[in-house]
Write a structure and sequence with these properties.
Shape: elongated
Number of strands: 2
Order of helices and strands: HHHHHHHHEEHHHH
Structural class: mainly alpha
Strand content: under 5%
Number of helices: 12
Helix content: 55-70%
Strand order of the largest sheet: 1-2
Distance between the termini: 51 Å
Radius of gyration: 32 Å
Largest sheet: 2 strands, antiparallel
Length: 257
């Protein structure tokens, strides 16, 4: 599915420069030798990379220019920490750092407030997760992260859940060329199902067929939560009579439901 073009106020994205791999390596060598002007050229030459990353976050309700500025911070961190000796393209190294910076920004500006201590546990867990991935080249389990942090597994799980970004009910989850399917289409409503609605109608119709005394007894017993003895005291009959009337009323209702 094609992504929409990102528009940044004050930035002509069509005229942003693009650097070749050879130019990038030469600029990195010069920058690491102390030429700060080359750092500026590296930043300007990779702004398109930031634009491509923030396209993923367009449905989060954030302004594109805010995400662009945050993404540029991630880009600068990637430029300052990139190791030319590693046999990896700069974009491969930079994209996760740009995404990480944007996600941190979104977490810190989350409208759902999370306590500082819980957020600290979550950030430490994410750091440990990155460390374990780098060390063992596989995704660690929650138990492995908790063991490395020396905290209970449940605490790590709760902390990571707490910093998850909220998802809009109108965010599309599937699109096959026709009408999109949104998150809200995948959520069931157990309180408003047709079956429950129909049962409610049948219950009211069956109640209408009862005598006034039977209605009163069932209302007091099952809607007000009173015991048979309490009902008996209130309407002035014995508990045995209440029991017989209740049983007869229920049998009568079942015939009409």
């Amino acid at each position: 599915m094609p992504m929409n073009k990102v528009e940044i106020p004050g930035v002509n994205t069509a005229k942003l420069p693009v650097l070749t791999n050879t130019e990038m390596r030469e600029l990195f060598r010069s920058m690491q030798a102390g030429d700060l002007a080359c750092r500026d050229r590296l930043i300007n030459g990779n702004l398109r990379l930031v634009l491509s990353v923030i396209q993923r976050f367009q449905n989060r309700g954030e302004h594109s220019d805010d995400l662009f500025q945050v993404g540029c911070i991630g880009l600068m961190k990637a430029i300052d920490n990139f190791d030319l000796e590693q046999n990896v393209k700069f974009s491969t190294y930079a994209v996760p750092m740009i995404i990480g910076e944007i996600r941190r920004y979104l977490r810190d500006n989350n409208p759902i407030r999370v306590s500082r201590s819980l957020r600290d546990v979550a950030y430490k867990a994410l750091q440990v997760r990155d460390y374990l991935v780098h060390r063992y080249a596989k995704e660690p389990t929650i138990s492995e992260i908790a063991e490395e942090l020396a905290v209970p597994r449940e605490e790590v799980l709760y902390a990571l859940d707490a910093i998850q970004e909220p998802v809009s009910l109108f965010e599309p989850v599937y699109h096959d060329g026709g009408d999109p399917i949104y998150v809200m289409d995948q959520i069931s409503d157990e309180k408003n199902q047709d079956k429950i609605w129909l049962e409610g109608i049948a219950l009211r119709e069956a109640m209408r067929r009862l005598s006034d005394r039977e209605k009163m007894i069932l209302t007091m017993r099952f809607f007000q939560g009173k015991t048979q003895m309490e009902v008996a005291d209130e309407i002035g009959i014995s508990q045995a009579q209440v029991s017989r009337l209740e049983k007869a009323a229920l049998i009568h209702m079942r015939k009409h439901m």
